[in-house]
Amino acid sequence: MQSDWGGISTLVAGQESKVSFIVNELGYSRRFHFWCTDSQDAEHTYEGIIRSLEYLGGTTEEVLVDNQKSAVLEHPVRGVVRFNERFLDLSHHYGFTPKACRPYRARTKGKCERMVAYIKHHFFQRYREFESWAHMNQLAEQWLQEEADQRLHGTVKEIVAERFAQEAPVLGPLPAQRYDTAYRETRIVGWDGYLDVRGNRYSMPSHLTGKSVTIRIGLDDTLRIYHGDELTAMHQLQPASQGWVTIPDHHKELWRNTLQVERRPLDVYEAVAAWS
Fold first, then answer.
1. 223, 166: one domain
2. Terminus of the chain with fewer CB atoms < 10 Å: N or C?
3. Is the Cβ–Cβ distance between 229 and 220 less than 8 Å?
4. What DSSP string runs through 22-46?
5. What is the pLDDT of residue 272?
6. CA 120 to chain centre
7. Could you tell me if residue 231 is inside a domain?
8. What are the CA-CA distances from residue 89 to residues 67, 95, 96, 238 (Å)?
9. Which segment of 83-87, 104-108, 208-212, 251-255 scores lowest on mean pLDDT?
10. 188 within some domain
């Protein structure tokens, strides 16, 4: 399977938006899948590859990528390719061998580049406006099944869907557990029991104050916090204008300890002042 990114501007929810779409095409049948989003970073690259494998119903022996940093850290003209460690982790999870396009040799990824142009000149010409990103991707998969899969391919001279029927049985099985494409970062929980994430604050269980935790931010803005291997809290990201995000149970112990203030006896002068 070959993988590549394309981009275009179009209307999403009434706003002119820059759309990035990742195209993944099978080498034999020329069947392809694409996924539209707003970023070409590593996490979206991995998510796009996974969605394509799920759409196609199995894994391939190899995945050929361009030399973007999300997958390839170093690719000298004469030397060994150094892949991104997380891309290698993804490849091990799905059982494919990562391959990188040879530098300055465009024909090694020509099929995918042609599909980028095909999508721009067909899908994005038919559909010029979308209600949301979800609506765009829903229309994309509908268009793939109704048009792209049914086309007579100019090179192999066969209907793509019919040729894929020969290829499908040799695809490998998908893993039982989906790979986690969330952003991963390390944070220190504040002494007030809150965690700073992307401009807002989120409550944490009080026993973790001052401790280091790992956060995972999903592409759907779900925030998961781990202490070691234990999932300790979950939140949905929201803008700071909506206020800090608090789960009351997180701070029960913290408030209990705060309110347990020792009361000392009044001295004579304080007693007189209080009486008067």
1. no
2. C
3. no
4. EEEE-TTT--EEEEEES--SHHHHH
5. 47
6. 23
7. yes
8. 17, 10, 10, 30
9. 104-108
10. yes
**What range does the domain containing 67 cover?**
2-170
Q: What is the pTM of this model?
A: 0.86
Q: Which two tokens stand for residue 30?
A: 């020329």
CB burial of residue 59 (10 Å; 0-12, 13-18, 19+):
buried
* Mean pLDDT across 216-221: 96
Token pair, residue 17, equals 């938006």
Q: How far apart are CA 46 and CA 49, in angstroms?
A: 5
